[in-house]
Amino acid sequence: MRQKTKLIHGGRGFDSTTGAVTQPIQLASTFKQDGIGNFIYEYARTGNPTRSALEELLADIEYGTDGFAFSSGMAAITAVMKLFVQGDHIVVTDDVYGGTYRLFSNVLHKEGIHVSFVDTTDLLALEAAILPETKAIFLETPTNPLLKVTNLFKVTELAKHHQLLTIVDNTFSTPYWQNPLRLGADIVLHSATKYLGGHSDVVAGAVIVKDSSLASQLGYIQNATGAVLGPSDSWLLMRGIKTLGIRMEEIETSSRQLVKFLQSHPSVTKVYYPGLVKHSGHAIHALQARGYGGIISFTVLSEEIALNTTNNTHYFTLAESLGAVESLISIPAKMTHASIPKDRREQLGITDSLIRISVGLEDVEDLAEDLEIALTHK
Ligand SMILES: *Cc1c(COP(=O)(O)O)cnc(C)c1O
């Protein structure tokens, strides 16, 4: 089965009891047992048919064996971190999602799990950060918001050599464009709130693995810690996933056109997009992914122009988040990445004049006009 077919026919496909072409939403919190211990489903935190159908679909589309659905992307990352114990060390991509940075620096730290933030595009720096107590490498590629690309082939090779797990947050590329499990990663996770849901109406997280030992540990953690995705949200996510392929294709086409527009605009000083041949990670990304996605970051001449732009678009909504049918615009330094200290942000290149857009499904001509008017607004 190819990817777009799998998005629709993967997992359980239709409902086997009624023939319904979509999965039913099962709201029951508990299930009758035919004698003690004789049941298919026991209790809805442990397992629910709608969530199970979604989890089978997630496993399929990421080329894994087992999927787990959580109440948010952060809940998914937290559950994965429960694989580790006090004293363990993890190497993490330095310009990781702001919430992930906050979790690692301010919460896991209290549990005695230590992290080093490293530019994982630099393999020598990455290897130098590995300590005797290192247990895993946690990556995002491309990163948020500068779209830096880490070589997944090389990192998973290095991780295997040092007996480390490779964990990849694949939110930006989606399973439609990039499948880290096929490139040697051990755990893939998603903020399903973004492209998988795709319609700004569900907050969810996903974890997918291909190894039975990791699967049983994560299943145990999911049930024990309990941040599961509810049945209605599981259903919404399955509905979103059906159109992931066509959404990503259309977003890709529009993004390429908007990149061209931005490159030729006099107020724009630099455009970050992995599809650009001169982007530092272009060649590596082209080897490990099939598309470049719908996130574009760019710097403008001044902070004032940046603020004017984000305040004056009509179709690009000023909002956090990304990956939906609506185009969104933000200033990462003041929004998604505000929890990263300013000097560190500047070090990473996340300046106050950096704008990030998430390209949606509107007519691209309207989107370009919208940016043109906002960029020249006085
Ligand atoms: C949004 C996001 C998260 C967090 O997911 P939530 O669903 O908001 O909890 C994690 N990683 C990346 C890359 C994200 O964009």
TrEMBL record:
A family per Pfam: Cys_Met_Meta_PP
Keywords: Lyase, Pyridoxal phosphate
Coiled-coil annotated residue ranges, if any: none
Keyword Lyase: yes
Family: Belongs to the trans-sulfuration enzymes family.
Protein name as catalogued: Cystathionine gamma-lyase/homocysteine desulfhydrase
GO terms assigned for molecular function: homocysteine desulfhydrase activity
